[in-house]
């Protein structure tokens, strides 16, 4: 037996894990509802905010600093308050807070020999994570055979761009959607359709934009997108290295795609030889299938796919014919040992909690959430409206859709104890990313109750 395996099987390790789990459960069990801050902690909390503002060069978006303990979707802040976290680090905390399975996986990682895994030196868990992702991605026919792990969604997306440019050289243009978001690197800022995010930065990539599927005009917007695509392909023959698509527009406002819409675009792209990249950094795990491209039946078009956020370690999956012929892919870090271990535990939990399927947890919870939101639409006409997103990507439009209205309601929600965040532009919207592994209808009811209180204040202040 390997020395490492002997350590893992040592009964003292199991005993220690059990003691930690029991202690964590005992101290977090009372967090079953939101609660206000503790006045005795206010001075210390204000000091934290001031220290952050000084060292970061600006204030935090929210006055949010966790105490380090939570219970499911509830999290205790360092001011003693408890919030209902329905944003989860913008989709990262899929098991909520202080999740016992993820804590157990983190302890397993803590007794491994190194904190980080890398391209040169890695442990067998890296291989298992890679195999699991490839298996999930190809389970309904997508020809994705290879994968590279990475430390961030931006790095996963950078690697996707590298693969596409290398494969299609010397093509140097990208096609993306209006309001696309891909990341914060220089290349990805160029791809992202937010001029403010690249203010003062050199334009690294030439990008051509298409309109996304409009919920109010699906046929017309599909026709516009296809017509614009054909115009671009004719104007720049052989110049496009990839088509970049979020199956559900993420930062763009959580507007769903559809099988017909994407097929109408992907077929002429195939004919033109333009590779298709599905950016699933935010959408993975949140629809009826592990990947949203599977949810929309687009397996045949998946050339390169990226994942991140909820997977803890990020990754770029790709077809065999995209395997580079030069050493363009390499990283000192492919991920932390803890990220890989908890990523595997996350994949296990997504399956064991029945998140997937047309009648699986994700779609049922969405239907219930949307039903409750519609009641608020009727109660507060002109203050909240749909559409409400897809799967466990929930969204609504506050007030008149201005950024001022969205920020106002977001901050009122925070004060009431409900965490949601901005997305979209014209209109600006508010989104929820409830943790799919643990969210129940009771949690949704609690969120609706807090949103109701927030809207009552919003109506008088907007």
Can you tell me about this structure?
The chain is built from 15 helices and 20 strands. It starts with a helix and ends with a helix. It folds into 3 domains: 30 residues; 163 residues, Aspartate Aminotransferase, domain 1 (Alpha-Beta Complex), CATH 3.90.1150.10; 243 residues, Type I PLP-dependent aspartate aminotransferase-like (Major domain) (Aspartate Aminotransferase, domain 2, 3-Layer(aba) Sandwich). With 462 residues, it is an alpha/beta fold.
Task: Sum this structure up briefly.
With 462 residues, the chain is of the alpha/beta class. Helices cover 42% and strands 16% of the residues.
Features:
alpha/beta; 20 strands; Aspartate Aminotransferase, domain 1; 462 residues; Aspartate Aminotransferase, domain 2; 15 helices; five-stranded antiparallel beta sheet; globular; 3 domains
Instruction: Name the CATH class of the largest domain.
Output: Alpha Beta
What percent of residues adopt helix (DSSP H or I)? Answer: 40-55%
Spatial order of strands in the largest sheet: 5-13-12-11-8-6-7
How far the N terminus sits from the C terminus, by CA atoms, comes to: 67 Å
Q: Would you identify the regions where 5 or more consecutive residues have pLDDT less than 50?
A: none
- Name the CATH superfamily classification of the largest domain: Type I PLP-dependent aspartate aminotransferase-like (Major domain)
What proportion of the residues form beta strands (DSSP E)? 15-25%
What is the mean predicted local confidence, pLDDT? 97
Number of helices: 15
User: What is the structural class?
Assistant: alpha/beta
């Amino acid at each position: 037996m390997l020395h490492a395996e002997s350590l893992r099987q040592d009964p003292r390790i199991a005993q220690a894990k059990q003691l930690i789990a029991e202690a964590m459960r005992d101290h977090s069990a009372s967090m079953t509802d939101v609660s206000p801050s503790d006045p005795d902690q206010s001075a210390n909390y204000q000091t934290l905010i001031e220290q952050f503002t000084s060292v970061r060069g600006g204030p935090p978006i929210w006055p949010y600093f966790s105490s380090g303990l939570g219970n499911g979707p509830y999290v205790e802040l360092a001011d003693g308050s408890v919030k209902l976290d329905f944003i989860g680090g913008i989709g990262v905390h899929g098991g909520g807070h202080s999740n016992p399975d993820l804590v157990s996986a983190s302890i397993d990682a803590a007794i491994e020999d190194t904190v980080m895994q890398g391209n040169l030196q890695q442990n067998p868990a890296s291989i298992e994570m890679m195999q699991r992702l490839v298996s999930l991605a190809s389970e309904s026919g997508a020809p994705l055979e290879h994968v590279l792990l990475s430390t961030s969604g931006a790095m996963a997306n950078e690697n996707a761009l590298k693969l596409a440019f290398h494969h299609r050289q010397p093509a140097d243009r990208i096609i993306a959607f209006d309001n696309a978001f891909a990341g914060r690197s220089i290349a990805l800022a160029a791809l992202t359709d937010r001029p403010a995010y690249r203010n003062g930065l050199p334009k690294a990539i030439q990008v051509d934009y298409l309109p996304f599927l409009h919920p109010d005009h699906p046929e017309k917007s599909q026709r516009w997108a296809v017509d614009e695509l054909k115009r671009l392909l004719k104007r720049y023959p052989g110049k496009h290295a990839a088509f970049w698509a979020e199956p559900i527009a993420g930062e763009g406002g959580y507007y769903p795609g559809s099988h017909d819409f994407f097929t109408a675009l992907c077929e002429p792209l195939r004919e033109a030889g333009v590779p298709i990249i599905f950016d699933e950094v935010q959408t993975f795990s949140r629809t009826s299938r592990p990947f949203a491209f599977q949810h929309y039946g687009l397996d045949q078009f998946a050339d390169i796919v990226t994942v991140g956020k909820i997977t803890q370690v990020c990754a770029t999956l790709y077809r065999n014919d995209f395997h580079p012929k030069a050493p363009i892919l390499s990283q000192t870090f492919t991920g932390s040992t803890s990220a890989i271990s908890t990523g595997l535990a996350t994949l296990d939990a997504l399956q064991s909690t029945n998140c997937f399927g047309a009648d699986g947890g994700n779609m049922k919870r969405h239907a219930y959430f949307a039903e409750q939101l519609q009641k608020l639409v009727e109660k507060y006409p002109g203050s909240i409206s749909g559409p409400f997103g897809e799967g466990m990507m929930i969204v609504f439009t506050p007030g008149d859709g201005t950024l001022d209205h969205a920020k106002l309601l977001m901050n009122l929600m925070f004060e009431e104890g409900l965490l949601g965040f901005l997305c979209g532009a014209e209109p600006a919207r508010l989104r929820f990313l409830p943790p799919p592994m643990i969210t129940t209808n009771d949690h949704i009811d609690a969120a609706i109750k807090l949103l109701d209180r927030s809207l009552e204040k919003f109506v008088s202040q907007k």
